[in-house]
Write a structure and sequence with these properties.
Strand order of the largest sheet: 3-6-5-4
Strand content: 5-15%
Order of helices and strands: HEHHEHHEEHEEHH
Number of helices: 8
Number of strands: 6
Largest sheet: 4 strands, antiparallel
Distance between the termini: 23 Å
Structural class: alpha+beta
CATH architecture of the largest domain: Orthogonal Bundle
Radius of gyration: 20 Å
Helix content: 40-55%
CATH topology of the largest domain: Helicase, Ruva Protein, domain 3
Length: about 220
């Protein structure tokens, strides 16, 4: 798992721990589970996961604060994600995503591993699409299902270094004047498992490139 992706996500989510949220999480989940909110069933399950999480990790539920929607800690995990993906990465005998950045780093890596991140796989490339082919680019999450050969047969101009069997998808990102179009690989789709918004995934990807570039410059 590229460390620059993890660093980018920690920056986007909480400014590296400086903004983990000030909303009492128990109150947030109770209101959303039983109030006049959409997705009440989802939040009822999250409330159950939250109470189990606090018991399993010996954290007083009233002491936990997070985002307005119930996300918590350095990586802004919801309660069910905390229970499924959080790990004791520094091996100190406890899982702590609220004050331990090492556990947070390992937990984000574990999240992507469990969602089948491909080591050394590409994430995205910009691509120009003709008006005929623009229909293939989605504004919503687009899972790669068709391989490169399929798209070449459709008449799309795909970079020659991409193997015929590689599965691809295409997205559109709204801009002020004209939408950006991108060719996306499996790992971009995995990024959208963390947050389903294509713009979030692209921000994480582009920030990670800047982080890696800066790191390399500083270490020459």
């Amino acid at each position: 798992m590229p460390i620059e992706i993890i660093v980018a996500i920690l920056g986007i989510e909480t400014s590296y721990g400086h903004n983990k949220g000030t909303h009492p999480t128990l109150e947030t989940l109770v209101k959303r589970a039983f109030g006049n909110y959409r997705r009440r069933n989802f939040y009822r399950k999250e409330l159950e996961s939250f109470l189990l999480m606090s018991r399993e990790n010996a954290i007083p539920p009233l002491a936990i604060k997070g985002s307005y929607a119930g996300a918590m800690g350095y990586p802004q995990f919801i309660a069910s994600s905390y229970r499924h993906y959080a790990v004791d990465f520094n091996q100190d005998g406890k899982i702590d995503l609220f004050s331990d950045p090492i556990d947070a780093i390992g937990s984000i890596a574990n999240y992507f591993d469990k969602h089948q991140w491909h080591d050394f796989g590409e994430i995205a490339r910009p691509i120009s699409l003709s008006s005929t082919h623009l229909k293939y680019a989605k504004r919503s999450t687009n899972k790669p299902k068709k391989n490169t050969q399929y798209w070449r047969n459709k008449g799309l101009s795909i970079d020659p270094d991409i193997p015929n069997k590689t599965k691809l998808a295409f997205i559109r990102l709204p801009q002020q004047k004209i939408d950006e179009t991108w060719l996306t690989f499996w790992n971009f789709y995995v990024l959208t498992r963390y947050n389903h918004d294509n713009r979030y995934a692209m921000a994480a990807y582009q920030l990670s490139k800047k982080i890696k570039q800066q790191f390399n410059q500083n270490n020459h």
